[in-house]
Design a protein that fits this description.
mainly alpha
């Protein structure tokens, strides 16, 4: 288990799915871009304490551009693209489906840049898992297509690029270093929204600040450390990114715990199809 990427990838999926209800709560007190800055400011503070406690060395000068690229793609540009896309009125169902393409895009890019090949069985498994996400998102919903969908496609591409950058950086740095330095640079870029965020803080009730702290500590700091650890331990990028298919299903179950949103037929059917696809991906050979 110490050498396996699976516990770390599963932990990431859990805390990333937790971000959905936490974000819903936090947005009652903050605007979207302010929340983005505050979330990663909290994560940066927590990671800085860990780095100082562990006395981690600074990144090599030649690798700083890679960390800046990771921070820009995974945090700053992604948040701008995602929020802009949603501002066009793209439905939650549509956005879920587009972002569910990230494992497929990442696998294709990893095959191109890292020569990581997947078997036909594994491509079929990802197609099955994507079908499960379609059932989850589009059952009884309307698929919207406008300029916002292009922004969301860009957001999915940015996350895929971030995954590849994580894969590259974990070859020479610890998961904590990779996460911390990427988040630091991402937060610096997000600081353009700091004035508005600071202006909103005094008028925001404490009940809406608690979800921001949880987002920064768990969904960001802990989640991305676990994600980087999974990449470091995995032989192939797709072994880790395939877990992203579980996020909508887990988020649906957490919605029941937080808001008593009873999972419908689509949740159970779609979740079952995703689990079936995951079984084919990881255990199909056996």
């Amino acid at each position: 288990m110490k050498r396996s990427p699976h516990p770390f990838a599963a932990t990431t999926v859990l805390v990333w799915a937790l971000a959905f209800p936490l974000t819903t709560l936090a947005l009652r007190g903050f605007s979207a871009f302010s929340l983005g800055f505050l979330r990663y400011a909290v994560a940066s503070a927590a990671l800085l304490v860990l780095c100082l406690a562990r006395r981690l060395p600074l990144p090599k000068l030649k690798d700083i551009p890679w960390f800046i690229a990771a921070g820009a793609a995974g945090f700053f540009l992604y948040m701008v693209a995602f929020n802009t896309g949603m501002a066009y009125g793209v439905s939650s169902a549509t956005s879920s489906v587009i972002l569910a393409s990230v494992p497929v895009i990442t696998a294709g890019l990893a095959s191109l840049f890292f020569s990581e090949k997947l078997r036909a069985r594994q491509w079929a498994a990802m197609a099955l898992e994507f079908l499960g996400v379609l059932i989850l998102a589009l059952y009884g919903a309307v698929f919207t297509a406008n300029l916002g969908t292009l922004w969301l496609v860009l957001a999915a591409l940015l996350v895929s690029c971030y995954n590849l950058l994580q894969r590259r950086l974990t070859r020479n740095y610890s998961p904590l270093q990779v996460t911390a330095y990427s988040v630091f640079f991402g937060t610096l870029l997000l600081a353009v929204f700091a004035p508005k965020a600071v202006g909103e803080l005094p008028a925001t009730p404490a009940a809406f600040i608690v979800p921001v702290l949880a987002l920064g500590l768990f969904s960001s700091a802990l989640g991305y450390i676990a994600w980087a650890t999974a990449f470091q331990k995995a032989e192939r990028t797709a072994t880790v990114t395939n877990y992203m298919f579980f996020t909508p299903f887990v988020a649906g179950l957490l919605g029941y715990l937080f808001f008593r949103e009873v999972p419908g037929v689509a949740t159970w059917i779609g979740g079952g199809v995703i689990l079936l696809g995951a079984g084919l991906f990881y255990f199909g050979k056996k």
